[in-house]
Amino acid sequence: MNDPATLLAELVRIPSVGGSPEETLIQERLAGWMSAAGLEVDHWPIDLDELTGRPDFPGMEAPRTRAWGLVGRLPGTGGGRSLMFNAHVDVVPPGSSPAWGGDPFSGRVEGDRLYGRGSCDMKGGLVAALTAVEELAGDRPRGDVVVACVVGEEDGGLGTYALLDRGWRADACVIPEPTGLAVVPAAAGALTFRLRVPGLSAHAARRASGVSAVEKFLPVFTALRELETRRNTGADPLFARWDLAYPLEIGMVRAGDWASSVPGELVAEGRIGVALDESPERARRAMEEAVGRACDADPWLARHPVTVEWWGGQFAPARTTDAAFVAAMTDAAQGAEQWAAPYGSDLRLLTAAGIPTVQYGPGDVDLAHAPGEHVPLSQVREAARALTRLAVRHCA
């Protein structure tokens, strides 16, 4: 059997940032791995124009001119239940933080840790799934085991949406996201938004004759922080380990076009968490109402209100209600703890398709999207063993 660390380092060194050419390159590499491992391979071009035009498309933020789907199937001997491992291959940009200590895609190993963007989120989990399938190929279970490598998860769920559209299904699914080897049967939602705050441009030397859009954003930002507090009161007990179950954050702010001018517009982009069992429509309405109240309290904004746009990834919340499968994963993980994820994931697309799904994988979610991202190799190996145990029992 191949060393998981070697494969993981190779995959981390492919900088498969969402929308980049390497997002396609890594699918080609993985298709080759699957073929060499004896899997039946389905590697197809995704019809972006057709899928993105659908009313139920889950959103896409990274510009793409092409994207590829990839599934490898280990056929069972017959008569057993099928199991899917669903892992995304796209990663977020690494940024320029000195915390990387060099190349953010180095894949370097220090002791038990393998470093690099995507090592934790979630190429470590992908390698755990591939290692499990490689182990199962030597003594096949009765049911099929499917490995789905998907693109576009970070910015909406393009890959899993295309996978389901192509007709791929299984009796149950594990997403090996970084959970620290805990079992995660539920995930909050997350909606991407854009705010446009109007001001009035003027020369900075005569700033009193203008209206700063930056200044007018401040009461709106305060209102959003207050909304976040209200929305996190009485959160589902599955979120008890988190300080915030449903975070609301502004991730990008742009204002003005000249240093010595009063900024005439501010554009802020962010995400709002959607509570378990809450509809995305209700979450949108709550935010729009909060912004509206902030505008009503300001004479300028009352006449020139902030606009709210919903774009990009639109993640609904979801939970798996199949208690037997959750228990099976927990048992295979040798009694792992359970909690809910405060972020959106492809779990909601798979459960909506009627596939009981949980998240379970190596790595600390606090390291995902962070500088110095890494994954413990011991956890990658333990996750592979747990996924193997699950497949042996579930697919029997």
Describe the structure.
The structure is a single chain. This protein has 396 residues and is α+β, with helices and mostly antiparallel strands. The chain has 2 domains: 4-187 and 318-394, Zn peptidases (Aminopeptidase); 189-314, 2-Layer Sandwich (Alpha-Beta Plaits). Helices cover 33% and strands 23% of the residues. The strands form 5 sheets. A 6-stranded mixed β-sheet has the order 1-2-6-3-7-17, with helices on both faces. A 4-stranded antiparallel β-sheet has the order 11-13-9-14. A 3-stranded antiparallel β-sheet has the order 4-5-18. The longest helix has 19 residues, at 213-231. The two termini are 23 Å apart. Pathway: Amino-acid biosynthesis; L-lysine biosynthesis via DAP pathway; LL-2,6-diaminopimelate from (S)-tetrahydrodipicolinate (succinylase route): step 3/3. One of its GO terms (biological process) is lysine biosynthetic process via diaminopimelate. GO terms for molecular function: metal ion binding; succinyl-diaminopimelate desuccinylase activity.
